[in-house]
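[audit] Reproducing an earlier prediction to check determinism. Same input, same settings, fresh worker. If the tokens differ from the archived copy the diff job will pick it up downstream; this log only records the rerun itself.
[audit] input (168 residues):
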Amino acid sequence: MELRQGFDLEEVLLWGSIPLVWSSGDKKETFKAYVQMYLKEEIKAEVGRTTFNGYLEILEDTLLAFRLPTFEAKLRLRERKHPKLYWIDPGLVRAAGNRYGELHPQERGVLFEGLIASVLRACRDLKGIGKRILVYLGDRTMKTSDGIDVWSFARFVDNLDVENLWGL
């Protein structure tokens, strides 16, 4: 899906941006079929992994989700935090949970965060750049001791254009 042409955040959070679903006349039925066929068949193929981590690895191996380290300025606290899981598409999250229809207020923030994480990751992969950034709601821009740029949300929004995103 081209994000610039006719982009509607509400629709993307509701249905995601998977082209097959986006162009479908019946998004709900298409997503149901997609989840049934793709997710369940892939998980059955990996049935040997039975732990929770095993299921997360299946989602990552099938490129349906990815994990990112959480940001914490204090090294001691950072070492104790678990990575955060993001699905590649907000509609996929909703369909996997059998949630269709109107967005609930508590879903919006999480779905939006996942969308931003996916866009950042796709831009990084598309440009072949190894640069890592984190976005947070604070007002400072900084760099961690291991070289990760930490951007304020305002800076991220200012640089959302793909051409500017990585400061090239």
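[audit] rerun output stored. Observation attached for the diff report: Residues 9-158 form one domain.
[audit] end
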